[in-house]
Automatic annotation (TrEMBL):
Lineage: superkingdom: Eukaryota
GO biological-process terms attached to the record: anatomical structure morphogenesis
Binding annotation for ATP: 58
Protein name: Uncharacterized protein
Natural source organism: Blepharisma stoltei
GO cellular component, one term: cAMP-dependent protein kinase complex
Key word Protein biosynthesis present: no
Length: 339
């Protein structure tokens, strides 16, 4: 069933997402990798013989984007992603649109979300957490140097590539702020810095706060401030009573306390050379950041795949009839068949 085509959608169909390079005919559509608030992300394979690698296709329904007033956000996501070229950030290869959908063509991170890995393991060994956090320091340093704040750091938005390195993904909340501040409240409750909740304006320090939450969650198995209701989470974040599990050592406690410092001026990440301050912290004393950037350090986990199209590191999703979908047989087929 095609979604409703509206007059507004036609008016708003600027050339922004148009492309000479891609159309739906460029791809064979395979399974679903994930679903977001406005999107479904599918594994696709280019029909171009010279580029047969599987790719991820993020598909956004125009009527939903219009209803939720997300056009500006989407353009922003595209414009930001197009500026980025970093080993630890998902690359966008192009965008295109038809009457009903906007499509983002992305490189495929076959290892799934760090979130899935975390749920499977319960907690990460400190050495594994150190590897992922150190790669994130480099990704965030790169973004901040470009004047971009990410604003949605959480394990669901960290994907793992073929060799086990991270790929930061989902730039829906990212914003170019240079050295300024932004005021919109957005993000995920458990990961919000106090200044976002207070609405006093926030800058790139919120990403370092979120990194502290992530590090805590990776090692403890739960975030530092949590509750069933977002309101109570905000209260706890503002109260700032940080309690560490007994197995956290002094070095890790000092790093997390520095990142989860309520005062922005005292937080690790406030200074201009924030990333250097972090890299020099005792917890990273055994990390060679240049080798890490060159992907010369062995990753803690390399995804085991049956084939290039193997999606076993992702959850399974029922197919959707109202978005370009995979032929029925592709969802349940044995990964050995047909490759
Ligand atoms: P949200 O509502 O959480 O903001 P969204 O609509 O912006 O989501 P994404 O987070 O970009 O969508 O994608 C949804 C899911 O699809 C991801 O969590 C991930 O599991 C999967 N996914 C997205 N991009 C890729 C990719 N490049 N490679 C593999 N899987 C991906």
């Amino acid at each position: 069933m095609e979604p409703e085509k509206t007059e507004t959608s036609e008016k708003q169909n600027s050339d922004h997402f148009r492309s000479e390079k891609y159309s739906m005919d460029s791809f064979d559509v395979l399974g679903t990798l994930g679903v977001g608030t406005f999107s479904r992300v599918r594994l696709v394979r280019s029909k171009d013989q010279s580029h047969m690698k599987p790719l991820a296709l993020k598909i956004l329904k125009k009527t939903s984007i219009l209803k939720m007033r997300q056009i500006k956000h989407l353009r922003n996501e595209k414009e930001i992603m197009e500026q980025l070229d970093h080993s630890f950030i998902t690359k966008i290869l192009g965008t295109f649109q038809d009457d009903y959908y906007v499509f983002f063509v992305l490189e495929y991170a076959c290892g799934g979300e760090l979130f899935t890995r975390m749920k499977k393991l319960g907690t990460f060994p400190a050495q594994d957490a150190q590897f992922y956090i150190a790669e994130l320091v480099l990704a965030l340093e790169y973004l901040h140097d470009k004047g971009i704040v990410f604003r949605d750091l959480k394990p669901e938005n960290i994907l793992i590539d073929r060799l086990g390195h991270i790929k930061l993904s989902d730039f829906g909340f990212a914003k170019a702020i240079s050295d300024g501040k932004t005021y919109t409240m957005c993000g995920t409750p458990e990961y919000l810095a106090p200044e976002i909740i207070l609405g006093k304006g926030h800058g790139r320090e919120v990403d370092w706060w979120a990194l502290g939450v992530l590090l805590y969650e990776m090692l403890a198995g739960y975030p530092p401030y949590y509750d069933d209701s977002p309101f109570n989470i905000y209260q706890k974040i503002l109260l700032g009573r940080l309690i560490f599990p007994p197995h956290f050592d002094d070095v890790i406690c000092s790093l997390i306390s520095g990142l989860l410092e309520p005062s922005i001026q005292k937080r690790i990440g406030y200074k201009q050379n924030a990333a250097s301050e972090l890299k020099n912290h005792a917890w990273f004393s055994n990390i060679d950041f240049s080798s890490l950037l060159a992907k010369e350090c062995a990753s803690p986990w390399v995804p085991e795949l049956m084939s290039e199209d193997d999606t076993s590191n992702f959850n399974t999703y029922p197919d959707s009839l109202d978005q370009p979908h995979a032929p029925k047989f592709t969802r349940d087929r044995d990964p050995f068949i047909g490759f």
